[in-house]
User: Fold this.
Amino acid sequence: MAGESDEPDGAAARLEAALERIAAAAARRASAPPAQPAARTQPVETPAAELAASVDPEIAVRLDGLIERLRDALAVRPG
Assistant:
């Protein structure tokens, strides 16, 4: 990311924007209707548990790790 500032405020703004994009993409992916056979005439709602399972859990693990590293770097711990 050449040309981008290493200032904490700028980095935080870029991180926040990236997290917003990730959250929006995950929400779109989770709410996308599953492929249904053509024979069905009525839509079938997908249970919430199945929607949550359709989101790649790897991204959550990666984000948790990043958040932990940021907390360590900033020496900030939740209550």
Notes: Helices lie at 8-31, 48-53, 57-74. The two ends are 34 Å apart (CA to CA). The CA atoms of residues 12 and 47 lie 35 Å apart. The mean pLDDT is 74.
